[in-house]
Amino acid sequence: MASLSYILRRPTSEYGVWGWLTTVDHKKIGTLYMVTALFFFLIGGIEAIMMRAQLATPDSTVISADLFNQLFTMHALTMIFLAIMPLGVAFFNWLVPLQIGARDVAFPRLNALSYWIYLFGAIILNLGWFTATSPNAGWFAYANLTSIQYSPTNGMDYYVLGLLVLGTSSLIGAMNFVVTIINLRAPGMTLIRMPIFTWMAFITSILLVLAIPVITIGLIELGFDRFFGTLFFNNAAGDVLLWQHLFWVFGHPEVYILILPAMGMVSEIFPTFSRKPLFGFPVVVFSGIAIAFMGWSVWAHHMFATGMGPVPDSVFAATTMAIAIPTGVKVFNWLATIWGGNIRFTTAMMFALGFIALFTIGGLSGMTHAAAPSDLQQTDTYYIVAHIHYVLFGGSIMAIFAGIYYWFPKMYGRLLNERLGKLHFWLVFIGMNITFGPMHYVGLIGMPRRNYMYPADMGWDFWNMVASGGSIIMAIGVVVFIHNFYRSARKGEISGDDPWDARTLEWSIASPPPHYNFAEIPTVTSGDAFWHQKYPDGDKGVPHPVPSGGEDHEEVHIEMPRPSFYPLITGIGIALLGLTLVTHPIVGVVGLITLLWGSYGWMLEPAE
Q1: For the chain, what are the domain ranges?
Q2: Does 103 qualify as catalytic in the annotation?
Q3: pLDDT for 426-466, tens place per residue?
Q4: Which of 397, 415, 401, 412 is nearest to 500 (CA)?
């Protein structure tokens, strides 16, 4: 077969700072998401270290009570909405089009708009740090702590407006990925042949489309209470529990929005480094669908202590126990995939194995919350803090690190340093257990969460010192990772196109991928498509070369969407409109004009 060369029309504005500001390339947008989310991950980590410094010793006065309230509120908001969720979206952007054999997402400029709205929403949420008025009522924002009486500063206003803007970004991005996955799959890629990560991206996107409107309703009502004096959540005339229901109807699907992408990542890593197909692929897919469906039926286990009554308590206890079944099924599928495999203990594999261990601990502690009598003893103690961190740090973050080590060569064409990677793994794995393991115990013996100070005679001081020491170990591990990431991106070992002998289509093209991804849209005939192309008769087959887009001789023109600055302009307009209620009406006028300018230019700009 004659080799090919492909000539692409790439506008000069694609390069340099202007190129990043105007890009509509899903890969560059994925990189923007990843870098921004890692920055906020560091910010969230600094907030956690400050809290652990305060709690390291009894009767500490390192920081004030009000600052502590702002820190634990912003730490949760930052890690959930500005770090873990966007890191998942970064991988969606990078991998979904590559895994389904597409050249880009369905709506490239809408994809860029989603990023810019996320960035500006993150800025709005953090504006309080510059005026000493950050949100301080907890990330859950329970009424009536959020009323003007108890939160008279602008902190909760930034909460409302920042999350509304961020929700707009999530909704736009999720709808884009749903359309992309349904419509842009390569010929022959049926749903059951889609890679498992793309399946989890699909399910997560559907969850976002359904969950974001629920919290949007609650935020709008909370905003009306604060800005216009309505009484939706007022204790005298409204219903304070209405907010809890709205929040947790969103909040528990949100947990799966955070963990399903992580499950998808490790489901790609285990087969590659075990040299075996994923055990029970259809079961893993349908268990993900079951988790997403059942996730809507468990929200009120967060509310057992509110006095709902024995019937609701019993129903939600049963549904909470039931949702553990599809989650446990995935764990056994992963273990069966590894069992008997030719395992390579790369850094990515080690983080994925760490994910199984830590997420399982978090799942087991979560099951103890399913029984209402047990939950009543654990609610608002550090046992809950331990549980959520084993699920979201031991789960989502460990899997995200695994994903970065696995797909970094695809993104940059270079390998992350394995020695530094393994050091990073052990520091984070050990530090995480030292930090959050003891919290199970201090919670069970009565230490309440969200308190900024505790007396010396409660038996909590030793384990708090241990937990604070563990947080320093974790922080050192993250510093090692940042050094490794920065160093390897600039001068790491060249990886080649397929360093892991991987299974899915993204590894069949050059690393890093060309602007257009696939010079020839592939035809898929089976699951694990790239393995079947390389080894047509299984492991005993003879490997044969697979076209890796963009090389040699015959001339082909590939039109790609042109860069555009209108998504950035439109995003600025949306952010300024969002700030109107906490600034000056002139900001709203400027925002409206900017939004109309961006939207009008967007409509008239040719797509190619």
Answers
A1: 7-564
A2: no
A3: 999 999 999 999 999 999 999 999 999 999 989 999 999 99
A4: 415
Token pair of 513 as six digits:
């991928």
Residue 101 in tokens: 């054999």
pLDDT (average), residues 258-273: 96
User: At a CB cut-off of 8 Å and minimum separation 6, what does 348 contact?
Assistant: 269, 273, 402, 403, 405, 406
The one catalytic residue in 301, 387, 410, 503 is 301
129 is catalytic: no
Task: Identify the active-site residue in 33, 158, 256, 412.
Answer: 256
Q: Is 380 a catalytic residue?
A: no
Quick one: DSSP state of residue 450? T
Known catalytic residue at 61: no
Q: Is 256 one of the catalytic residues?
A: yes
DSSP state at residue 522: -
Q: How far is CA 353 from CA 336, 428, 436, 452, in A?
A: 13, 13, 18, 35
Nearest residue to 494 (alpha-carbon basis) of 413, 421, 418:
413
Q: Any idea which residue has 């994910």 for tokens? A: 355
**Active-site residue flag, 301:** yes
Q: Which of 22, 147, 168, 169 is catalytic?
A: 169
**Catalytic entry in 26, 109, 185, 330:** 330
Among candidates 320, 401, 397, which has minimal Cα distance to 358?
A: 397
CATH code, 7-564: 1.20.210.10
Residue 302 annotated to the active site: yes
pLDDT tens per residue across span 557-569:
677 888 999 999 9
